[in-house]
Amino acid sequence: MDASVATPAPKTGVFARLSAFRPSLNQEMLILVASVFFALISNGPFWNAAHALHPGSVLFLVSLAGVLIAANGLLLSLLVWRWTAKPVLTVLLFVTAMAVHYMTRYGVYFDADMVRNVLATDVKESRELMTPSLILPLLITAVLPTLLLWRVRIVPRAFTRTLWVRPVFMLGLLVIGAGSVMLASADVASMLRNHREIKYLATPMNYVIGLKQNLRSSSPIAKAPKTPIAQDAIVAARPAGSRPRLLVIVVGETVRAQNWGLNGYARQTTPELAQIGVVNFPDMHSCGTSTEVSLPCMFSQIGRRNYDEKAIRGQQSLLNVFDRVGITSLWRDNQSGCKGVCEGAEFESLTDARDPSLCREGRCMDEILLAGLDAKVRAVPGDRVVVLHQLGNHGPSYFQRYPDNFRKFTPPCQNPELGNCTPQQITNAYDNAVLYTDHFLARTIHELQAMSDYDTAMVYVSDHGESLGEKGLYLHGVPYAIAPAEQTSVPMIMWFSQRFASSRGLDTGCLAQRARQRTDHDVLFSSLLGLMQVSTRAYDPTQDVFASCMKAT
User: Fold this and answer.
1) Cβ(520)–Cβ(211) below 8 Å
2) Which of 149, 162, 425, 454 could form a disulfide with 246 if both were Cys (CB 3.0 to 4.6 A apart)?
3) Residues 319 and 498 sit within 8 Å (Cβ to Cβ)
């Protein structure tokens, strides 16, 4: 009897067809397909902004599509080669999907400053932003395209041929881009001239260019020791037996002036400070819209008026000047670091403290900054400057920034996914966090009052503000030139012990009058030097808010 072996029937169905799907593309065709995908599928915020400029103008949109495809193609032509094509495109697909998600959800722009913010984001901040709403965009615009990408066979080609094919391909892209501009040249030129911020919505070019700028500025090769400033600085001699001075600078996080009770906000979010009596600056403006920009700028002699990022980051800060004249500085941090401001000064991070009464889920309440503060101050004799860097109102998890007993405004948004909450719930959570900052500052003042062996003072100022949904924007980081007031108007207050004010001849009534004028972060450098009686050519009396309120002592 003959034995026969059955031949398996060929597989049919969707999965069989998918497994057999192995298209062959040369490098340039793959670049073109990826460029079209990024331009048309992964640029929702860009197209929304562009359409708002010329609603109904099909020619304008077609023109922009051609420009965007050509620009993407030119960028990818520099990055995508036979052996790098799939890894590079995979990374770009996932990063672009995430960037578009956050631009869509929060209205952010990916300029160099925003890329720097992302690079400086710690694990705790990242965890708060990794919400379930990210899953679907990643699946549709990253995972599925990546699976298709890895099914593609890249046609091998001699390298010598690539050397002339690639330039010809790039020349063709330039022609397409130029031709596309000509379709609606007036409208495109107007957009580039009057709405330059739109380029920060065009992915993946926005973050790739921003990354390049950051890598260039922070390169270990290019990084040199910081340039000393105010080397002529001296501190005024004081009478024998004078108490040492202690100045505490509290750097707030993401608190905006509009929700500050002392500024006349409809809600009383600063009841404890109102009882103590402080000097309030209701018209205060920040140097930037992110911590990465504002913090170095606040402690710099350059400031926003002569803003030069490279120069600011390349120079020493106000704290270095204090240390040079013998006023020892200390930076205590409940955030993501001092952004280079405290380089050379004593630094203490309390983000991983274990106090069960103040810390939970990997985060600590800001009162952790006061733990053992008096002992830290007294450990070094003489005048001291202490910086307390708050976690403050850092979003989007405002509800995690205050203890339960500060849950006054209800119901608060208790979800980092702000789109799942009503505007009122978001505001409630945010205001509760401001209320806790009020308590933290009041407690700081009480701690200073108890240190009777020092003449004490406190200056509080927020680094930048926050958008809570106004104009469709959330969080912060919008390019400064187009930033809304919610992100640049910040609170600032000052408090002085009676002995401190007396020893400096400070007329606090006069200062309260000065506080009503427009003020910005630029005043901090010279004002704090003047307050601590440090003389230097770097001091600018026109930027000293105390200068006109000091009596001879």
Assistant:
1) no
2) 454
3) no
SS3 77: helix
Task: Name the nearest CA neighbour of 265 among 435, 414, 447.
Answer: 435
Cβ atoms of 379 and 335 within 8 Å: the answer is: no
Q: Which of these, 513, 493, 509, lies nearest to 501 by C-alpha position? A: 509
State the residue for tokens 């359409």. Answer: 51
Calpha distance 88→74 (Å, rounded): 15
Q: What is the pTM of this model?
A: 0.88
Q: Which of 506, 550, 500 is nearest to 244 (CA)?
A: 500
Residue 428 token pair:
């409630």
pLDDT tier, 16 (very low <50, low <70, confident <90, very high otherwise) = low
Give the whole-angstrom CA distance, residue 320 versus residue 538.
13
> Residue 332: how many CB atoms within 10 A of its CB?
24
Q: Which CA distances in Å does 190 have to 368, 375, 534?
A: 52, 61, 50
pLDDT, tens digit, 9 for 90 and up, residues 351-389 = 989 999 999 888 999 999 999 999 999 999 999 999 999
Helix (H, G, I), strand (E, B) or coil at 424: helix
Q: Which two tokens stand for residue 153?
A: 């066979």
Q: Is 518 exposed, middle or buried (0-12, 13-18, 19+ CB in 10 A)?
A: exposed
Q: DSSP for 148-184, please give it.
A: HHTTPEEPP--HHHHHHHHHHHHHHHHHHHHHHHHHT
What six digits make up the tokens of 184? 């609606």
How far apart, in whole angstroms, are the C-alpha atoms of residue 104 and residue 101? 5
End-to-end CA distance of the chain: give it in Å, rounded.
122
Please provide residue 228's backbone torsions phi and psi, each rounded to the nearest 5 degrees: -65, 145
pLDDT per residue over 36-50, tens digit each?
999 999 999 999 999
| Rounded Cα–Cα distance for residues 448 and 441 (Å) | 11
Distances in Å between the Cα of 70 and the Cα atoms of 115, 322, 356, 424 are: 23, 53, 56, 44
Q: What does the alpha-carbon distance between residue 276 and residue 76 come to, in Å, rounded to a whole number?
A: 60
Rounded CA-CA distance 69/36 in Å is 6
Compute the chain's Rg from CA coordinates. 28
Q: Which residues contact 120 (CB under 8 A, 6 or more apart)?
A: 291, 292, 336, 337, 339
Give pLDDT tens digits for 125-135: 888 888 889 99
* E strand or H helix that includes residue 523: helix 523-531
* 434, 391 contact by CB (below 8 A): no
E strands present in 412-524: 455-462, 467-468, 474-475, 489-496, 519-520
- Mean pLDDT in residue range 302-330: 95
For 273, the 3-state DSSP assignment is helix
187 token code pair: 């409208």
Question: Looking up tokens 């509080």, which residue turns up?
Answer: 460
* Token reading at 92: 């770009």
6, 40, 80 from 66: Cα distances, Å: 56, 10, 20
Give the helix, strand, coil percentages of the chain, each rounded to 5. Answer: 50, 10, 35
**On the CB side of 370, how many CA atoms lie within 13 Å of its CA?**
18
- CA-CA distance, 31 to 34, in Å (whole number)? 5
394/136 Cα distance (integer angstroms): 26
